[in-house]
Structure formats: C-alpha cells, structure tokens
Amino acid sequence: MAVATVEALVQIGAVETRYQRAGQGTPLILLRAEYAGADPLFERLATEFKVIAPELSSCRAASGFEDWLRGLIDGLGLDQPRVVVAAESVQELWDLMDGLRD
C-alpha cells in the first residue's frame, strides 16, 4: 500500500536540503544512500512513524555532518527523532558514511 509522500525543502544554514516526508507519530530520520521515490522500507516505516528522508548530497556542502543533522532536526522542529541508516550491504553503508564525512 502506497503512503502519501510530500517532498519539500528545508534551509540548513546556507544549504537547502530536499527531503521526503510521510506518516505520523514519532519522528524518524531515514538516511539512505539513494534519494529516490518511496521505497518499501520508507513506506513500511511510515505506517508507524513520521518519516523524514533527506537528500544526503546536501550535507556534503554543509560544514559537517553533525551540524547538518542538527540543522535538519532544528529546521523541521523535530523533538528527539530516531535516526535509521539504511544500506543494502556493508560496503554501501561504508560508502555512505565515507560520503557524509567528506
């Protein structure tokens, strides 16, 4: 079953970040290697959480991953969100984390 997904932008310092949002409830930030349409994990999580899936390429333009993530949380007015990192493989996870540190 497809969930209603909203695409929007949030300003994080000088960086504009695109994100997808769906669901209601406890906020959950889904960090995934590809910014694409809703996927099965996104849709499943959105049945129980307010899922926010940002485009990660914008965090590379920010001053650092931690500052970018804090700016995302503050910019969206989220209160103690959960954070999930989704990867197809251990290698994809390492590549994703290396990309966030650049």
Characteristics:
3 helices; alpha/beta; Rossmann fold; 102 residues; five-stranded mixed beta sheet
Describe the structure.
By secondary structure, the protein is of the alpha/beta class. The chain has a single domain (6-101), classed as Alpha/Beta hydrolase fold, catalytic domain (Rossmann fold), CATH 3.40.50. It is built from 3 helices and 5 strands. It has a 5-stranded mixed β-sheet with strand order 1-2-4-3-5. Strand 3, helix 1 (40-45) and strand 4 (50-54) form a beta-alpha-beta unit. The chain starts with 5 loop residues before the first strand and ends with a helix. The mean pLDDT is 83.
Task: Give the SSE layout.
Elements: E1 6-12, E2 15-22, E3 27-32, H1 40-45, E4 50-54, H2 65-75, E5 82-86, H3 90-101
Parallel strand pairs: 3-4, 3-5
Antiparallel strand pairs: 1-2, 2-4
| CATH fold call | Rossmann fold
Please name the CATH architecture: 3-Layer(aba) Sandwich
The rough form would be described as globular
User: Superfamily at the CATH H level?
Assistant: Alpha/Beta hydrolase fold, catalytic domain
* Distance N to C terminus: 37 Å
Content-based structural category: alpha/beta
| Quaternary structure annotation | single chain
Beta-strand percentage? Answer: 25-35%
CATH class designation? Alpha Beta
In the predicted model, the low-confidence regions spanning at least 5 consecutive residues are: none
Number of strands: 5
Helix-strand sequence = EEEHEHEH
The main β sheet shows up as:
5 strands, mixed
Evaluate the radius of gyration. Answer: 13 Å
Task: Count the DSSP helices.
Answer: 3
The domain tally reads: 1
Instruction: Give the strand order of the largest sheet, numbering strands 1, 2, ... along the chain.
Output: 1-2-4-3-5
